[in-house]
Every structure is written in C-alpha cells, then in structure tokens.
Amino acid sequence: MNTTQPLQLLAPLSGVLMPLDSVPDPVFSSRVVGDGICIDPTSQTLCAPLSGVIGTLQDSAHAVSVTADNGVQVLMHIGLDTVNLAGKGFTSRVTMGQRVEAGQPLIDFDADYIALHARSLLTLMLVVSGEPFSLLGDGASCIESGAPLLRVCPAEQRPVDEAQQGSVVFSKPLIVPNESGLHARPAAVFAQAAKGFDANIQLHKQQAGANAKSLVAIMALQTAKGDSVQISAAGPQAGQAIEALEHLLLSGCGETVQAPLTPAPTVTDEPSVPGRLRGVCASPGSAFGEVVQVASQVLEIEEAGGGIEVEQAALDQGLKQAMQALKALQNEAEGSVQAQIFRAHQELLEDPTLLEQAQALITEGKSAAFAWRTATEASAALFQQLGSALLAERAADLADVGQRVLKLILGVQDNAWNLPERSILVAEQLTPSQTASLDTSRIAGFVTVGGGATSHVAILARALGLPSLCGVAHPVLALDNGTRVLLDADNGELHVNPDQALVEQLQATRERQRQRHQRDLEQSAQAARTLDGHRVEVSANVGSLRDVEQAMSLGGEGVGLLRSELLYLDRAHPPGHDEQAALYGAVARTLGPERNLVVRTLDVGGDKPLAYVPMAHEANPFLGMRGIRLCLERPQLLREQFRAILACSGLARLHIMLPMVTQLAELRLARQMLDEEVRHLGLEQAPKLGIMIEVPAAALMADLFAPEVDFFSIGTNDLTQYTLAMDRDHPQLASQADSLHPSVLRLIARTVEAARAHGKWVGVCGALASEPLAVPVLLGLGVDELSVSVPLIPAIKACVREWNLSECRTLAQQALGQESAEQVRDLLGIHSSTATPATLAMEH
Ligand code: PEP
Ligand code: MG
Hints:
Blueprint: E1 7-10, E2 15-18, H1 26-29, E3 35-41, E4 45-47, E5 52-57, E6 63-67, E7 73-77, E8 90-92, E9 99-100, E10 105-109, H2 111-117, E11 123-127, E12 133-135, E13 142-143, E14 148-152, E15 168-170, E16 174-175, H3 184-195, E17 200-205, E18 208-211, H4 215-220, E19 228-234, H5 238-250, E20 276-278, E21 280-283, E22 286-293, H6 308-332, H7 337-349, H8 352-363, H9 368-385, H10 389-410, E23 423-427, H11 432-436, E24 443-448, H12 456-464, E25 468-470, E26 484-488, E27 493-496, H13 500-522, E28 528-529, E29 535-542, H14 545-553, E30 558-563, H15 577-591, E31 596-600, H16 627-633, H17 635-646, E32 653-658, H18 664-680, E33 688-693, H19 696-700, H20 702-705, E34 711-714, H21 716-724, H22 742-757, E35 761-764, H23 775-781, E36 785-789, H24 793-800, H25 805-816, H26 821-834, H27 837-843
Parallel strand pairs: 22-23, 23-24, 24-25, 29-30, 29-36, 30-31, 31-32, 32-33, 33-34, 34-35, 35-36
Antiparallel strand pairs: 1-14, 2-3, 2-13, 3-11, 4-10, 5-6, 5-9, 6-7, 7-11, 8-10, 12-14, 15-19, 16-19, 17-18, 17-19, 20-27, 21-25, 22-26, 26-27, 28-29
Helix pairs in contact: 6-7, 6-10, 8-9, 9-10, 13-24, 14-15, 15-17, 17-18, 23-25, 25-26
The structure holds phosphoenolpyruvate and magnesium ion.
C-alpha cells in the first residue's frame, strides 16, 4: 500500500464552515489538539470523513476518531464542553475497533438538547496525526455532509531508532484527577507536553499502553476519574519527561481539578485510597491478607518476521504447546466448570478464521507473534462490538488464549505471582481461566473493578469457595502490593490497613462461621425440616457430573436445575445424541430412582450464542431469541435434546423444565413435541414437564400455566432482571438488582398461590435460594424446594432448621409490604439475629 498517497476527507456533517481561529476555545483555536476545520452543524448525524478503524470513541459519545490504514488520524469533537453532558444527547452507532467506510454514520446527536445544555454545538474535525492538508471545494462557506472537504498529504513514516532508546523509566502510579478522565482537552495538553521531550513515552492503564504523544491513543485508553495510570519513558530525556508529565497529569492537564489525588501509597505512606471501599459480593466469606496486584505482562513484539517458514513453524509450535497445556489443565479439572473453560479455549485455538488471519499476515512477512496478536485482537474487537455481555466475555477468553500462545512463541515465562500466604488478589478484571487456575492454598480472596455477581468469574469464585468482591472503585488498583486489607465480602466491603480490633472481630466471626460450617457439614445428610416439622427439599444447581457427585456428598436431595446448555456452548457442532445421553444418564445414575433430576432444556440465545445456530445481531439479546423461543425456532435441536433426556427415563425421577417461557403457546408446543417423542420411543411413562418462572408475564399468568404443568421453578436471576429492568451483569446496578425487592417477592407469592390452587409444587433455582437471609421468606411464601449452589447445600439446610414455618409466614407477609429491597434486608437482618437465639448459642 502506498502510504503517502493523498487522502480526501469528506465533510462529516452539513453546516457552515469556520476556521479554527474563530473557535471560542483556546485548546482548539491554538491547535494544541491538532489542526483542522470547524463546522457549525445543520445536520444531526456525524459521519466518517474517511475509511478506517474507530480508534477512539468516548463513552460519552461526544468525540470519535478514525484512523486510516496509512496512519492518518482524524478526530471529530461534537460541540464544546460536551464531555460534561456525560453521553446525554448522543447515540453512538459504532464501537471502538470497528472498521468504517467514508460517509458511514458514526454518532447521532440531538442538536436542540446540546445547544441548550452545552456551551456550543460547534463541531471540530482535526487531523490529529499532524499531516498537512488543504481545503477542497469552491470556497463556499456552507457544506453538505459527505462532500469532499480536505485533502491530506501523509508524510513518510520515520522509523524509531530503537538503539537510542536506552532503559525504560517508570513513574509511580498516578490517579487521574479529571472529572471526565483524560478526554480530548486534557489528553491534548498531555500529548503536546510529551512531544516536547526527546524520549519514547507511554501512558499505561492496567494492561493497555498508549503512545503518550498521540492524543488519539491517550483517548483510546478511556481513562476515568480515579483510574490508576503510569507513565514510562525511554531515551535521552526520559527522566525529565517523567518528572514533568507526572506533575502535569496530577494537576489536571489544564483542567481545574480538586486537590490533586495523591499517588498510590508506598508501604510507609498513608494510603491514597479511602480506608474502606465498597463493592458487590460475588462470593461470600471474609479474609484478612495482603494485596497482590494482578496486571498482565506487557510483551515486546517485533513486527517484521524472519522468513515465512520460520514464523509459520513458530506459530504452529506455540499453538501446539498451548493446546497441550490446555488439555492437561482440562484433564486435571475434569468434570468441573474449570474444565469447560479450558475446553472452550482449545476450541478457540482451532478457530479457522483466526488461523487464516494469522497465516495471511505471516505470508505478508510479519512475525508469528505479531500475526497472532493482530488476529486475536481483531476477533476480540469484533466480539466486543456486538454489544453482548456474553460475547464481550468471549473477547476476554480470546485475549486470554492469545496471551498464552504469544508467551509460548516469545519464550516468555508467565509472571510468577509472588504470592505470600493469604494473598488478596486485586485486578481490573480476572479472566475466567485465571480464576479457574487460582492457587487456593495461598489466595484468600480477590477483588475486581469489573464484573458482576452473576458473571462466570463470580460463579467460579463461589465454586472455589473464595470470598470475592466485584464492582469496586478504581482507586483499589492504586493499592501497593503488600498492603494489609480485610476483605469482608458478606458486607460488600474492603478495609484498607484495618484496625487490629476490626481484624480480630472479623476473625472471631470467621471462626464462628467455620465452626458453624463444620456443624452444618456434619448434619448435612439430615433432612431440612423447620422447627415445627415442615419439610423442604434442598437440591442442587449443577452443570457437570462432578457437581452432582459433590452435591450428593454434601447432602443434596436431588438436582433442581441441570444447566444443560453447558454441553452446547463453545463448540463448533451441537453435541450428538450419544454424548448428551451419556451425561444425562451418568447424572441420573448418580442420583438413583428416588431422587429428582430436573433437566432444563437448552437455555441459550442472543446472549449465549451458538456457532452452529446462526442468528441475526440483536440490539437487546436478553430480550431476544433466548431459551424456549430459540428452541421452538429450531425444533430439531429441541427434539434431539428431548430424545437424549428420555434415554435416561427410569434411572432417576425425571423432570424436564423449559426456560424463559412467556406464552402458553410455547408450553403447549413443547409439550406436544415431548409427547410425540415419548410415543415414538414407546415409553410407558412421560417425564414430568415444568417451566421456569423467570419472565414476569409467566408469574402474572401462573394461574393459567399451573393446570398445564407439573411444577414451577422460579429463576430469580432473570425474574429480577426483567422485573426491575436491570441487566443482571451490570456492574453499576449490581447492588440494586436485588432479588429481595418486594416486587420480585410479590411475583413469587403469586406463583406459589397459583401452583397451590392446582396442587403443583414450586421450587426456586435462582441465586436467591442460595442466600441464607432469604430462606425464611421463601419458606413463608410457600416454596417447596430450594435448588442451590452446590457448596451452600449444608448451610441452606441448616438455615431451614432454624425457623418455625409460622414465623416465616409472618415475616414473608411483612416483607411483601416493604418499600424496597433494603427494607426487606433490614427486616430479615433483625429477625435473623433475634429470632434464632438457638443458633447463636450453638455457635459460641
Ligand atoms: C435464573 O434466571 O434465575 C436461573 C436459574 O437461570 P440462569 O441463571 O441459568 O439464567
Ligand atoms: Mg434464567
């Protein structure tokens, strides 16, 4: 490609052209950000002025940049001071990393709203990579969107003289003080200052690094207030650069900031983070220990290869070794959730698109490492663009696998984490495979900035019994390694350098919990009966045979939810009849003919896509083709699953459960198919058929569903997200998306009432059933079965034994009348400690 070919930029908007000098904002008129043109817009959609990749897209969608293949970077900034609108009035139509064509719509904006709420609507188009340009057209002051506007003449790239670089100097960790992070204005000031030093300067945020002389690269880091960043520099003026830029960053890069946040503490300094940070409990428990910050390694990668054959061989070797390592890890963890993750990673290694992309780059003369990294990053960016939380998680998996192979190609050893006894890991985010590999003998718990309480990482943490918090504020990343912290996941708190008294208090609580756990374990084989003799079935939520075996050893009375989709995910073809039947059969045999086995049919869809079920992109996958809706669209998939489930008839008390049912017609169609399959197989007895109550419509119509089902099982995770209109994985909403909200409890009450009237049983298989605090309410509402996370079986059974059903009924009625989830929690908290003196007495 000729990188110096002149490039034409189209007008991104219709409007009146103005020179930059007349923009009433010195950051733009002085050209600190870059030279370009200003448009006073008359249209309301910002379009791409050139083809390329979206290099920056502020969360607030008021600024976006496009980088052409030849390196020309063009930044568009809609309005002045619009960062303060925090996204209001803007709707972005693209995502970071997406490839766009010239003229493609990028951002819609509401001109009236912006004109009223921001300083100005004047929109800038700036060539921030610094190439010279000339104005096209006839000199008219009005321009139509899409008309040719500027002609840019890219310059030859000057290679960096690596030999001159010298060693790299790092600043201390610095906390970004700017209210809106390093958005265009402060980023421009910072980049401008960095350009003044003869040094190669990078700005780092966690794993990501950016050329500090590039405005776009800095903006692409998407820093937020409170983020911890670090500056590195190499070259003759490295030391001076670090000193000056540290100061500049902490003073707000030209923006007024509150008293500069002090940098991260050293062991002897006072901590710059508050003494107590709040988060959301991802896995219960508490631990006292030392901080170990987890950041992934930055790998040095040469772009140019040493010959096609050599590089191809290096890639093949890296892939082979990664495959072997993943297989070994999978075998070690056989039957567990961890094993499924390692298997999924092997599938990624064999992904043909990924391999083709990497090979094509090697053929172009790139190194194996460069080719592999580019291919994995491109696919990860694609996953992220699709706007689904689950695909974004797959992007994390891809990054994870990508890094594994890269290290093997480069011969880089994994950063051995220096783990003291009782380490508390702190990370922006842990990947599922990192979590699955944690050494629980040295790690006492972990804390992450991202993630939700229902994410894979949280599920794994609970399976490992590690207390953990997610959604903790960014300053946690500035804690020094070795800082003493008290992780109180039960109360959603992380105490930094806690008082000895607090530590002792929590340790005493832990000791009581340990004793209690011991007692619960000893009694786990006994039935769960209330003090006044009411029996409740406590069964298990499982995803694998190993879970079932563990559940049995912990006193599980059956399987209330077999999440069959785990068999279907992360593979190129659906599991065949025999593979499915083998799992259901093994589970059923483990349970035996006296215990319930509730197999949930495939619950996938927009949010958990299957490679072999192509689906159109959905704007709201949680409201799209999920669960039974997808299965009825692909009846063959459901029929095959019915057949495989029916193959274990007689081995356990077989129940089939349909997820996401919303309409009676869905239940009727599925029942008809099941009946046909039962007849086809000549079975004498059909299994029980029930539905999950996880859509408010089904709860509200439970009286009409009840006569046609054998049972209901309430999926409080989805029921809560749909009732409260809060994404179950949303980190900021995690504390509000509470299943104890009275609205959710009212839907449960209604469901139980309808089931009772028709003599059907009701279980709860959502995470609410695994919360000891919720047990009396669920019993009081009349729930017959609690299907819980495997490790919590003994605790939930013990909890049932502490209550009188009559007390539970009173409490449940009171809970239904509360105004908020907090009030319900307060009510239950009071009663849990006062109404169960017998328990406390036993603990002391
Ligand atoms: C639920 O929604 O509560 C449930 C148990 O299903 P899942 O968490 O698998 O969506
Ligand atoms: Mg669900």
